[in-house]
Structure formats: C-alpha cells, structure tokens
Amino acid sequence: MYKLFSLKKKVCNSSAQASCTISRQVLQSPRIDGQTEKFVLFSLNRLSPNSRLLLLLNPRISGCAAMSSIARLRPAFLLLLLQFCLSVLSPALAISTGSVDGYTINGRIKIPVAIGALGKISNVKVILNGGQNVTFLRPDGYFSFHNVPAGTHLIEVSATGYFFSPVRVDVSARFPGKVQAALTENRRGLTELVLEPLREEYYYEIREPFSIMSLVKSPMGLMIGFMLVVVFLMPKLMENMDPEEMQRAQEEMRSQGVPSLANFLQPAATARSG
Amino acid sequence: MHKNPSSSPSRSVYLVTLIDETRREKKTLGKDFSSAMATMLRVFLLLLSLLSLTAPAFSLYEDQVGLADWHQKYIGKVKDAVFHTQKTGRKRVVVSTEENVIASLDLRHGEIFWRHVLGPNDAIDGIDIAMGKYVITLSSEGSILRAWNLPDGQMVWESFLQGPYSSKSSLLVPASLRVDKDNVILAFGKGCIHAISAIHGDTLWKKDLEADSFEIQYMIQASDSDVIHLVGFVGSSQFDSYTIDAKSGELIKHDSAAIPGGYSGQAALVSSNTLVVMDSAGSTVTTISFHDGKVTFNQTPVSTLIEDFVGKAIISASKLEGLFSVKTGTLTLFVRVTVEGKLEVVNKVDYATAVSDLLAISEDRQAFAFVHSRSTDIDLTVKLGADWNHDLLKESVKMDQERGSVKKVFINNYIRTDRSHGFRALIVMEDHSLLLVQQGAIVWSREDALASVIDVKTSELPVEKKGVSVAKVEETLFEWLQGHVLKLKGTLMLASPDDMAAIQALRLKASGKSKMTRDHNGFRKLLIVLTKAGKIFALHTGDGRIIWSRLLNSLRQSATCEAPTGLNLFPWHVPHHHALDENPSVLVVSRCGPSDDALGLLSFVDTYTGKELSSASLDHSVVQVIPLPFMDSTEQRLHLLIDASGQAHLYPKTSDALSIFRPELSNVYWYSVEAETGIIKGYALKEKASDNYSFDTRSIWSIVFPSESEKIIKSSARKSNEVVHTQAKVIADQDAMFKYISKNLLFVATVAPKASGDIGSSTPEESWLIVYLIDTITGRILQRMTHHGAQGPVEAVVSENWVIYHYFNLRAHRYEMSVIEIYDQSRADNKDVWKLILGKHNLTSPVSSYSRPEVMTRSQSYFFTHSVKSIAVTSTAKGITSKQLLIGTVGDQVLALDKRFLDPRRSVNPTQAEKEEGIIPLADSLPIIPQSYVTHALKVEGLRGIETVPAKLESTTLIFAYGVDLFFTRFAPSRTYDSLTEDFSYALLLLTIVALVAAIFITWILSEKKELRDKWR
C-alpha cells in the first residue's frame, strides 16, 4: 500500500500537472489496492497522451515500480509507448549546417496562395523561442535562424489569417547538422521543415443571407406568428367546442370578472353607436 | 478551408453553456433594476438575446469594424532616415526607430507605406538604400544584414555576419563601387568587415581585422577610388586606422597610435583624413590626421575656443566638411579645422541645436542644416558646407504646441521650377514627434511618442450641461425613418454597396461616440497616456483622437535631472458627480534616472485641459507608490511614497491629509519583491513619525527563496480597484463554495536558476517552476505548487479568488496555462440552515488577513498553443458579468478566452447538473476560436500591455492594448444583455407595432360584425 502511495506521490511531483492536487486528497483516505490503482489510471488519463508517456518514461520514477504499474495498465498504453519510441527513433532529415558558435535552422513556409492574398507573405513573421529571435520570409518562403545553440527549440509562425502549429525543433549537438522537427499541436513529425497552416482563420462572423425562416424565427416574427395563431385559430377552436360547455365557461368567466376582448371593446363600441 | 475537427464540437458546447450563463445573469440582475419599466425592457432584451444566440458571443461582423474600436499605427522615435526622392514613383523616406521598426513613409502625407517591427533584441544600427530599390538594414550589433524591397517592404535577402567578438557596427553602401558587376555593401560588425552583394546578399569577401576590441567610428570611401578607410579606437587610448581594398578585401595599411589625453567616446570626421575627438575629461579637443601612414595629433583645449568654459564639452557626431560642432554647457560651437590642424570658432548658436549630415546638392557643392527650437518656433538654417557666410535657406516655422528641443534633423533637396534648390527637413523633436518642414511650413507631423506608452489611466469626461445640448436634433421624422429603412435593408441583406456606405456613415453619426461629454453608458472616456518621451496624451475612447498632449516640463532633461523617466500615473483628484466646475487631475510620478535611488519628481496634470497644475522635485527617491483609500477635504487622494531607504512619505503634504491618515497608520501594510536577491518582504509603518509627513517603517515578515534552487521571475497581484459581486459560488448540486477573496493576494513564480534562460537552454530534468500564493499582510503562504520540467517566461493574472498563469512545459514542449482557485473552508459550514436560523454563522464576520481561515485550493492545467506577451482579465462595473481572459499572443493579437475554459472543476464527463451549471467537458488544450480575437484582423505590433476599464454599463468593458500600435475596443464578455445592440432594427419594431394595431382594429371590426350577426339571429 505505502509503496503505491509513494509512487503516486512521485508521479504527482514529477508530472507538473495540476490534477495531482486532487489525487493527493484521495490519498488521505485509504482504499484497497485495485481502487487506488484505478485512480492512478484516472489521473493519468486526464493528461495528454504525450505527457502521459513522458511521465511513464521519466527516469525519476523508480524503474521497477513504474514498469510494474505499466504492465498492469491497459495494453493501449504499451502501444502508445511503442509508438512514442518509434517516433523518437525515426530518422530525421538534416536541414541545418553547423558553424563555429551555433547552428542554423533553415525552413520554409508554404501558404496556399489565394487570389488577392499576394501581399500577405511580407507580413509573416517567424518567431524562435517566444520572441528570442524574429525573422521574416524571403520571397520564396524560406527563412533561417542563425547562431542557434544545440537543444530543443520552438518555432512559431505569425501570419494574419492562418493558424500555424508551433514546431518543436531539436538541434543535435552530437550529430552536428541534424535537426528533428515535430508539430506540437498534433505531434506530427516533419521530415523536412516545411510549415503549412493547419487552417485558415476568418476573424469575422459571416452574415447569414436573408431568408424567410430567419425573419419568422426572429422575436418579432414569433410575436406576429403567435398573434396570427390567436386571431385565426382560436375562433376555430371555439367553434368546435360544445355550445353548452362554452356557455358554461363564459358564465364562469363572467362571474370571475375576467375581462374578455369583447368586454374590453364594448364601451368603445357602445360609445360609437351611441 | 480547413477546419480542425476538434474545435467545432467544443464550440457548440460553448453555445449551450452560454445560454445558461445568460439565464443565471437574468436571475442575479433582478435586484439591480431601479424601475419596473427598465425591468420589463431588460427582460424583453434577455428574451431577445436568448433567441438570437445563434453565433458565438463577442464576435464581429466585418461591416462592424471601426464602430466600437480604433487602431492607430506608430513607429517610435526615429533614429535614422534615408530619403528616396527620385523623379519617378512616389517620394518616400525610410526610417529606423528606437522601437526596432523599419518603415517607409509617404513624404507627402507622412503615412506608413509599409513597416516591419523587428525582434526586441534586434536593434537597428544602420539603414541605407542600395541600387535605388532595396532598403538595407544592419541590426543586432552588426550581425544581421537584410534587404527589403523598397516599394512593398518584402524582405529580399537576409545575410548573417559572424565575427569573433561583439563591437560597434557600421554600414556603408558605396554608390559607385562594383565588384564583378555587382553592387557592394560594406558592413562592419563583430570585428570583421564584410563585403556583401547587393543583389543576392552573398558574401563577396570577409576580412577579420584581428584586433581585439576595435571600436569602429567611421568607414570612409576615399573619393572615386576602391579604397576603404576604417577609423576607430581600441580601448580609450589607442587610435587605429585601416586601409582596405574594397574589391578584394586585402588589408593595404594599418596604422595605430596612442592618443594623448585619452578618448571619451565621441568623434567627428572632418575630412577624409582628419578626425576630431574629445578627451576623456571633456576639456581638450584632439585633432587626428592620418595622411600617408603618418598619424599626427594636435591638441587644443576647449577653453581657448570659448571663454569662461566649465564642465564637459561634447562633440556631436555628424559628418561636415572641414567643420565640427562642439556642445558645451550652454552653447553649440561650430569649429573649423584649418589645413594645418588649427581650430577656429566660426559661429556660436544655442545649445539645443541639431546638425544634419552633409548633403551633396550638386557635383561640387554640399549643404548641411542646423535647427533649433524656441518654445513653439523652429529655426531652420541651411548652409553651404564650404561657405559659412552664405545661407542657402533660413526660415522660421511655427509649431502648434511646444515640442521641446530638436533632437535630430535629416535634410533632402529638390529642384524648384526656377532651378534653384529647395530643401525639406525631417525633424525629430524631444517629444519623439516627427515633423516634415518644407517651404516654411510643417507639411505633416507624427506623434510617435505614442509608440512607447508606459502607463494608462482613464478619466471621466465632463457632464453634459443642461440647455447646451451638443447633440443635433434637427433630423426630421422622414430622415429618421429613411435611416431605419436603410438599416432594415442592411439586415435583410438587400442593400447595395452605396446603401452600405450610407448605413456606416449613419451609424457613426448616430452613435455620437466622439462627443466631448460623459455618456449614459460610460463608453466615452479620456485615456490619459504617459509615454517614454515624457509627454502625456489624452485620447478620446470614441475615435482615438488626441484631445490634448503636453510635454511635461518636469520630465524634460535639465541640469538637475539628467535622464528623467516616467514611472506611473495615478488618479489624484476625482471630483464627485455634482462638482461640475472642478476638473479631475492625475499625478505623474517619475524619477531622475534609471536607478532606484534617483530622486523623484511629481507632477499634477489637469485631465481636461492638459495643463500642468504644479510640479515638485522631491528630496527622496521613489520606489513604490501606494494610493490610499482616503480623500482629503478637497477630494485629493492620499498617496504614500516609499523611498529606497525604506521611509514612507505622505502626499499631499497638508495637515488635513495628515489628520486623516494618522488614525489609519496601523492599518497600512505593503510588500516588496526583490527579484535579484530572491526576498519578499512585508512592511508596516512605525507609529512615530520621523518628521511631519515622513514615517519610519518596520519589516514584519520576509520570505527568502534559496538562491541555488529558486529564482523569482514573476510576481503578480490583484488589481486594487477590482469589484467582486458575490463571495459565494453556487455549484451544481445546490451546494455553495465560498471564494477566498482577499485584496492582499500575491502570486509569485520562481524557476530553477539553470532554467531561467530561454527555451532550449535547459533540459526538463534540471528545470522546475514553483508557484506561490502569499498573503501580503501576514506573509502566510497559502499555496505552493511545483511544476517539474517547466520553465518561464511566466505571465500571470490574479482576479477574484483565482490566478491563471502561462508557462512552458519542457516535457511536452508546449506552452501550458494553469489555474488555481482558492476557496475559504471556514465559511463552508454556513450552508447549514439551522445554524443560519440560530445565528451561529460567521457570514457577517469581516474578511481579514489577521484571521487564518482554512483554505482549499483547486487547480488544473491545459495546453495553450501560443507564446503569450501579456494576460489581462475583463473588468466590469459591478463584477456580475462573467470574466474573460484577454491574452496578448506572440502574433500581437489579443484573444478573448472565457474563464470557464480554465475552471478546475472541469472533468472529462461532467454530470448533467454540472453541464447545466456551465461546466465544459475537459480537453487537454484550450481552444482558439478565430472569431474571438478582439483585435479581429488587426495586429497591435510590439504588444506590451492590455488595460481593461469597466464601463458604466455592467455588461461592457473597455479594452486598451498598447505596444508600437494602439488598439481600443468595447467588449461584452457575455454579450450586451443590458442594452440593445447597435444593429437593433427599430423599424422592424415599429412595423410590428403597426401590424399589431391594425390587427386589433381588424379583429374588433370582425367581432363587432359577428356580434351583430348573433343579435340578428
């Protein structure tokens, strides 16, 4: 039991995920093994697949305990784990050139050229590590960052009207000139650093074209509709009613003093006729 | 069009929950209605908004752009300018600025043709135009050379220059020099000289000067030869001159000599082989001539040039023929250097004179200009380089306001119709404004101080006086109806483009948004803006126009105050509603220099007229200003200024203020965050005053972070004027949670010292982020949370009982946002009805930092796509309207994100009750809906801050985002549930009423007939 708790604590501490605070609460109330394990699963499930795997691969977790818990987890985990390992091992294209004090990241941005969007490319910015370096595109869409130290970097593209996923770029120090890239939004690996927008962004609402239905659905339309129903359908309903029953109802109403439309208009009518 | 499948479901969920939101607001709003009429109207409106909820909230139609928002583009203080005035094509001037902007301006109107804002550490060192079609910029200390296409600003090529060490840089674009039919650009940077092809940006040759710390001063092309001279200094005492063959890069000659008397950092090139430098004491001018490998020095004390000289003289670095200018304490001297190296004073002018570079106006004649200003006049003089006695041009130009001294001048000539030379001068003033002077008049001016906003406050406009109605009511009924018919056409999409234009004009007119009076909804206000230039502006929120602007005298450079910098604005005097004859005023706090212990300056400015009411030079420094919640009898707000030695000073210094403040002495607490030492300290005032208005302070608590494992990178506190409507939060199962609401909540984020650098500089194992929530009165740590494998930069916002912060997760390699909400457990028992009946509850007990309530925190994290520059939160008048986060993204846009996406109670499968409450199912990342960018298709280039101000209308908040650009908009976080939208169709309403009346008559006639028929029967 205790071992499991400590494992969980470690997982929580290393995961940097806020959901761990909840798991700590539950830790205070002891439960049977199976249930606690389920809980681990639950809290892990709330993390994204990537961070979940990173968490499991984290060397800080005491190896056998972590592995034993993995083994007891669903097979899907192992599959994902396998996938992750494969994605790490997959060969990436060399796109950078080594130099004296840093590396160069070269890339290209492809924007589907629409009519009238020609001037857009001059306003595209490519941003390294959240603003550390900013560069612009050449007419052919290429860009480069110079003097980048080895490590894992983040490239963002700012282009009005397009949504680009940030790109994780690993510049390897051991193999100079080796660069790996992956989109962080969908964790898709890139064989070469060619960035394309995930989607276009349209910042305005599109006005719905005029239709009768929209007019009918509008509050005014509903009001008019209701009125028409009252005016034309109610008399029909009244006609269908049993005359005796109706008389009874009318008398009842009169005795209660509920003003009817006819009563309401009576004085006016009498005034006019008189 | 691609659509991310994951975004659309979340959007629809959002809609559903939003309806719930509005319903709840309906309930809470009920209390506030003053009259039955208003209630009815609003209930109707709620119904209306419920029915019309077909689109996501806060989005905008394209034709609504500019109705509630405005956007202004600026460039910043101009550093360098190059004219491009060829006969064909548009005349333009290309400028580089201190905000790292490169822009091409229309020379006729001063508008921006194109503009690029470079990165924050990519300062531009030099610009020029090559081959008449490329703008060349050298930036990042001479390491990046870029060429931009002159007509459209497209980057053509980019070249990265490398060298062994960092040094000053210099750019030279020789007009005539060609290497292999290729135009050459020479750039010096990082100790190397590079020759770059102007067409492709390829390096033709590179020469390492192999000299340590050579600081270049000038790069000169000897006339009509292929030889380049580089002159500069090593350290402060050695002069070096290099001669290089421009075609091959071979070093022809290298001369070096020690300068007698040292070197102060300023030098002026007098001719192609003579340099004038000032010694380190600022009292002797040394002339250096470097003919044929011989370096000779000639020293002249400044005191021989001008009598009664004291202090330091400065040589202004401009290229003049045979002349240079020296600035002494009061004067600017023009000094001629004779062939023998002797100096003679040609003229003395006022100190604040700017001198332009030499401009070749014909083959053998060169001209230069000098400009100086006298309050609202500018005197421009253009002289021939060789002939001092002859003025080419001398004119005086009137300005509309005081703009301080002239900082820089750039001249350009044109040929008049009578074949004489005309001159235009681009003048940079002390208030960072840019003026173009031509033919004795200011052709255009730009207020580019607004590119460097430091602080923003709002001020109410004057109340509209009775009888003097500014609104025009001459509109006839016919015109009114016509307008509404047009609008109806617009909503039914039957309008032609002409009609659309008419509708737009009508809307702008009808809104009366630029009126100079207070409005009922509180949309019209004055934005008081303090800028780096020391200039204050008042902008109208309606259309963004400048109501007044003032260069504060107290913020100008003077003998007593070397480098005044503005710090903050505070509302000083806010008259109550009925004091119509009093103008509000703001307090401008600034100090004489960048360091903390520089002396402070106070200035009081009337917000209606812009007049500086008074100013004071303080005899102490200003580290912190605490606005106190007290007013004196004249409605001046009390402020406590804390100086560097820990003393507190009370302002205004009146006995009245003191008598108000004395009883509250023991209730004043504050804290300081010392990021360098990693200490947070809390202070209180000592009872005994050291003198009348100064108080000693005592430290009451401190939190010391271990410097080897934690480094403070961000601290953030709640806005002091935030309003919270309710303390309780009703959750799904008819249960309540009590928010821990304290004004003294401080959020602090620390990271591992190793991970305090940029992303990519550390591994996940050695980096962690620890966040703290601290009570600033007692120093109690309410919550501590560790994120392993995370690092900064951290942006955070604290509001109500929650804090949201943005950081980088190194393991996932994505940005994350986390939310922490704090709840007060000590009030949780109050839910018991019996306790309430028996009076055993603590609902009425005040919220106090002295008590130590048990708190419960909940938190959750989500991925967020973008880097973030700034986070703010909407604020409304009563705090009823739900909150939205305003996120300034790295792309300089402002994204509105509903707070409910950052709710720790989100779960993967919310229960039915939770769904009804408005809890969104948990997803691992936060959605980015393009329609919820409040800046829509615009960008606030160089975004630095977002300010939110509540309007009087509860549903609406005013947003002001500033950077190099300014953007303002009105924003309703849960739609405008308490007023009609601007595109509400009154005509349709009228039509319905008419139809109803007609129907009543018809039914009446019908019923009468029927009755008659019944009677006959």
Automatic annotation (TrEMBL), chain A:
One of the record's GO molecular function terms: carbohydrate binding
Compartments where located: Membrane
Domain ER membrane protein complex subunit 7 beta-sandwich: 121-223
Pfam families: EMC7_beta-sandw
Primary residence: membrane
Entry-linked InterPro entries: Beta_sandwich_EMC7 (IPR019008), Carb-bd-like_fold (IPR013784), EMC7 (IPR039163)
Regions crossing the membrane: 76-95, 220-238
SUPFAM superfamilies: Starch-binding domain-like
Keywords: Membrane, Signal, Transmembrane, Transmembrane helix
Signal peptide segment: none
Membrane topology: Single-pass membrane protein
A cellular component annotation (GO) from this entry: EMC complex
Family the UniProt entry places it in: Belongs to the EMC7 family.
Protein name: ER membrane protein complex subunit 7 beta-sandwich domain-containing protein
TrEMBL record, chain B:
Transmembrane intervals: 984-1007
Entry's Gene Ontology BP terms: protein folding in endoplasmic reticulum
UniProt similarity note: Belongs to the EMC1 family.
Ranges where the EMC1 first beta-propeller domain occurs: 60-448
Keywords on record: Endoplasmic reticulum, Glycoprotein, Membrane, Signal, Transmembrane, Transmembrane helix
A Pfam family: EMC1_C
Name of the protein this chain belongs to: ER membrane protein complex subunit 1
Subcellular localization(s) per the UniProt record: Endoplasmic reticulum membrane
Presence of keyword Transferase: no
Topology of the protein relative to the lipid bilayer: Single-pass type I membrane protein
Assembly behavior: Component of the ER membrane protein complex (EMC).
GO cellular component: EMC complex
InterPro entries to which the protein is assigned, alphabetical: Beta-prop_EMC1_1st, EMC1, EMC1_C, PQQ_b-propeller_rpt, Quinoprotein_ADH-like_sf, WD40/YVTN_repeat-like_dom_sf
Alphabetical list of PANTHER family matching this protein: ER MEMBRANE PROTEIN COMPLEX SUBUNIT 1 (PTHR21573)
Positions of the ER membrane protein complex subunit 1 C-terminal domain: 799-1016
